[in-house]
Amino acid sequence: SDEDCDSVLITDNKIFEHSILRVNYTTYDLQREQDTINPRTRADVMVLSHEDEHTHPYLYARVIQIFHVNVEYREHPAALRTPPSRLDVLIVRWFRRDSSPAGWAAKHLQRLEFFDHESLPDAFGFLDPDSIVCGVHL
Fold this sequence. Notes:
Blueprint: H1 2-7, E1 8-18, E2 21-26, E3 32-37, E4 44-48, E5 58-73, E6 85-97, E7 112-114, H2 120-123, E8 124-127, E9 132-135
Antiparallel strand pairs: 1-5, 2-3, 4-5, 4-9, 5-6, 6-7, 6-8
């Protein structure tokens, strides 16, 4: 809402772009690993889906830009601002699952595709880097 936008201030109106993002995760055999996400070379990531558990458990996205901003927050116009805190943000382009049959019966894996031009509001978005499960090869 407009009130929410008015309560957040980007410190000095500066956005800091980064070229890589490192994501720590635990492998299936309980080992610690790290993926390096680079929008130019390895940009695809996997995040948990918040849909019901009968659909696919993950969402996939391609990272377009990595940046952080320092933000200050004010609950209401008369209140003092909080000290600046760092907010890491990714701009992503979302994939969706292809509607063609997939699985053991169809004898091929599920496929992904970008949203088409008719669905542009769903195609791009912001993502918190902490919600990334790991990088993926698509």
